[in-house]
């Protein structure tokens, strides 16, 4: 029988995946920005920077290549009669604001009250990342995550609370470090029933 070579077992190092090619017009746009900011894109330390920046932006924006709803396609029905809130709390995320393309760094708490079926818990964070890894405003990010879970799982309620710091406010402009923006979207029972809303907010730590 032919032997299968498993590099991990042999202790061999596995090469990183090949880097994506950066189109010349994209690289040139970044050189233009460097020049405009006051530096020389031809100096040694900046020679490869356009390619790095371009690849970094592809990574920051990889959500454009994802259908967030896809993550909710696989559900589980055997949950032993569990019919209480499911909450994924304080999920860290990064996004970029569509006004300045500056980082938005924060945490999200995502809860739903299931009806008949649940989803693998990691999928809530995957939905969040699929929307966060785009150019965003926090209000839309919050609404998109909640709507996606509402439409995908058809639960009794959805609650999403996002707390984030915007580098366009901390590192430039008004320069107010330490300021956080809080947004929320309540759907179904969490919108219509005060006690359910209070319960989910308490579980989230608010
Ligand atoms: N509502 C909301 N505003 C955001 C978000 N991210 C950035 N902003 C704001 O978008 C606004 C853009 O305002 P403009 O006046 O067009 O831009 P600007 O001159 O750079 O504004 P300053 O940031 O005040 O210097 C700013 O007030 C930002 O703080 C977000 O996620 N939601
Ligand atoms: Zn901004």
UniProtKB/TrEMBL annotation:
Q: Does the keyword Ubl conjugation apply?
A: no
Name the enzyme group at the top EC level. Answer: hydrolase
- What's the protein called, per UniProt? GTP cyclohydrolase 1
Binding-site residues, Zn(2+): 97, 100, 168
> Which catalysed reactions does the entry list for this protein?
GTP + H2O = 7,8-dihydroneopterin 3'-triphosphate + formate + H(+)
Domain GTP cyclohydrolase I, residue spans: 27-204
Q: Does the keyword Nucleotide-binding apply?
A: yes
Q: Name one GO molecular function term.
A: GTP cyclohydrolase I activity
Q: Which SUPFAM superfamilies does the record match to this protein?
A: Tetrahydrobiopterin biosynthesis enzymes-like (SSF55620)
Listed under subunit, the entry gives: Homopolymer.
Q: Which domain of life is it from?
A: Bacteria
Organism of derivation:
Sphingomonas gei
Q: In which pathway does it act?
A: Cofactor biosynthesis; 7,8-dihydroneopterin triphosphate biosynthesis; 7,8-dihydroneopterin triphosphate from GTP: step 1/1
Which InterPro entries does its entry note? Answer: GTP-CH-I_C/QueF (IPR043133), GTP-CH-I_N (IPR043134), GTP_CycHdrlase_I (IPR001474), GTP_CycHdrlase_I_CS (IPR018234), GTP_CycHdrlase_I_dom (IPR020602)
Query: Mind listing the UniProt keywords for this protein, alphabetically?
Result: GTP-binding, Hydrolase, Metal-binding, Nucleotide-binding, One-carbon metabolism, Zinc
| Enzyme Commission number(s) | 3.5.4.16
Q: Name one GO cellular component term.
A: cytoplasm
What family classification does the UniProt entry report for this protein? Belongs to the GTP cyclohydrolase I family.
- Name the GO terms of the biological process aspect: one-carbon metabolic process; tetrahydrobiopterin biosynthetic process; tetrahydrofolate biosynthetic process
């Amino acid at each position: 029988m032919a032997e299968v070579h498993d590099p991990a077992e042999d202790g061999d190092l596995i090469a990183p995946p090949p880097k994506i090619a950066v189109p010349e017009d994209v690289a040139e746009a970044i050189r233009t920005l460097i020049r405009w900011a006051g530096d020389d894109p031809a100096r040694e330390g900046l020679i490869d920077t356009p390619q790095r920046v371009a690849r970094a932006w592809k990574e920051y924006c990889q959500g454009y290549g994802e259908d967030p709803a896809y993550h909710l396609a696989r559900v589980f029905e055997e949950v032993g009669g569990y019919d209480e809130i499911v909450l994924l709390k304080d999920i860290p995320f990064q996004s970029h604001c569509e006004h300045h393309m500056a980082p938005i760094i924060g945490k999200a708490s995502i809860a739903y009250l299931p009806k008949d079926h649940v989803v693998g818990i990691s999928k809530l964070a995957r939905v969040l990342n699929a929307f966060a890894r785009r150019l965003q405003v926090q209000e839309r990010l919050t609404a998109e995550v909640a709507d996606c879970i509402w439409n995908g799982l058809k639960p009794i309620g959805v609650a999403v609370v996002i707390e984030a710091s915007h580098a366009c406010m901390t590192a430039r402009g008004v320069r107010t470090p330490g300021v956080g923006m809080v947004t929320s979207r309540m759907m179904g029972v969490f919108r219509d029933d005060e006690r359910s809303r209070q319960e989910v907010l308490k579980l989230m730590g608010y």
